[in-house]
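2024-03-11 09:14:02 DEBUG pipeline.ingest accepted 1 chain
2024-03-11 09:14:02 DEBUG pipeline.ingest length=513
2024-03-11 09:14:03 DEBUG pipeline.predict start
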Amino acid sequence: MRFTLVLHQPAPESGAFEKNAKKIVESLRAARRRRPETPIVLFAPRAALEGLEGLRALECDFVRMARDAALKALHEEARLLKALVYMTVEGDRGPIAMVLGRNDGPTELRAFERRTGFEIDCLASTFPSVSVLTQDNPMLLWEPFEIREPFCSNVSESVGLQSGTARISPSLGGCETSHACAGGSFVDFGGTRFTARRYEPDALAFDCAAEDGRLLEVGAPERLLETSARSLSLPQDERLAALIAAIRDYVSAVRAEGVVLGISGGIDSALVAAAAVEALGAARVRAQLLASRFTSQESRELARTLAERLGLELAERSIEVMHEAARRDYADDLGDMVDGEITDQNIQARLRSLRLMAIANKENRILLCTANKSEAAMGYGTLYGDLSGGFSPIVDLWKSEVRALCRAFNAWKGSECIPEAIIEREPTAELRFDQKDSDSLPPYDEIERVMRAALGTDFEPADFTEAELSIVRAAARFAFKRRQCSIGLRLSSQTLGDFDERFGINRTIEMRR
């Protein structure tokens, strides 16, 4: 007996239930054209119908009704195509593994489904057995709840997989607002893993043979989507690949022409610029060096070197005329300002944002914010200044991780695209003379160490020193800044947003030792 196995890896649009259902039907129809007679069994991942952001909207009754209507229509299409669709649907108490296309309607996967051999259903077609339990010894062992993101995208080996059984693991591919879904859906059989593309939609069809309740053959996959492979240009490093793919997909989703960002000669803007060039091409990336009286010659030279190596055209502009005019104009309200005092620093940052946002508005670009996780934790940034932007690609990367990804980028490209001098340079905002980040912050390694511990679910203040608790308190105090910043890409299992939900705005947290 032969049948067709389809691995459907979508990049769904949240809330577009009917459109997402049609994408599944397109995969079914493409498989049916290739295999006119054989039964089709399609596997789709969790949120394939809803989209990740759409899962939250299901709390509204009218949204759930629209989802359920799309589900019913998909079921009818599957029946007409003599196919079964195995997918995960969000219920009141979490995800539910379901099968569509049966004569008796959409059905939750229950014990009667977990059997060996074949079953007769769907207009008298014969289908292989499917299970989510290893002990059932089915032909197709389905993993229904996987959503692989870059921080958890390593997949386990198929240890203990029974002979005659294939392991099916579908996942989402593509980026949606703050989430980068790694894709890489796979089928394991006979010691071979067949894998879908990374960070983009894909659909694979396999010609399979079975006998006496066991799977004998899984043929090489045929690709059902006639699209070019954008993922082929992505690096193997998962978080670096996610960073590039997320910028690419976000700019496309908001229908922008490209991006704009400030390049300072520092490591954060260097990584964001490098990722943006890979995602969009240098022609769609506007880069500006916005110098003040405090900008060093070293910063200018490093910014120029970076731009040259990335193929960027770097516009060098000065904010000094506006800076001085602002100081004079604000004197009636603020009095005389000393160079580099905190108000003066923030004025400079906001003047830079004013120019960058004007470019973004005029040219339909997205301003990329270059704040990292260590800075965001300590509130080390200016609201409506360097924290401005439409997307924050590296806000979930600690300073050490930014450094590591810069080196990973260079290794991937086989050359020092990001100058080592930038990677090794002591961080500075250059908003006053001879400024260093270490003048205002604990060491970045210490911030990361303490905040990693505080982000854990087993956080106990009694285990921390007073100096360590001061870092945690500062992080809680500056939640109001993070709440006003742009959408950030999730690159870890515990973000500062998770921390803010527990300890953030308008909460008094007793942190006693």
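2024-03-11 09:14:41 DEBUG pipeline.report The chain is about 35% helix and 20% strand.
2024-03-11 09:14:41 DEBUG pipeline.predict end
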